[in-house]
Amino acid sequence: MKKLLDHKVGESVELFLLIKQSTTGVTTKGSPFMTLILQDKSGDLEAKLWDTTEAHVNMYGASTIVKVGGEVHEYRGKNQLRIKSIRPAKEGEGVTIADLVPSSAKSKEVLHEELMAYFFEMENPHIQRVTRHLLKKHEAAFLTYPAATRNHHDYVSGLIDHVVSMLKLGKSLADLYPSLNKDLLYAGIILHDIGKVIELSGPVGTQYTVEGNLLGHITIMVNEIAKAADELNIVGEEVMLLQHMVLSHHGKEEWGSPKRPMLKEAEILHYIDNIDAKMNMLDRALGTTKPGDFTERIFPLDNRSFYKPSFD
Question: Looking at residue 78, what is its pLDDT?
Answer without folding.
Answer: 84
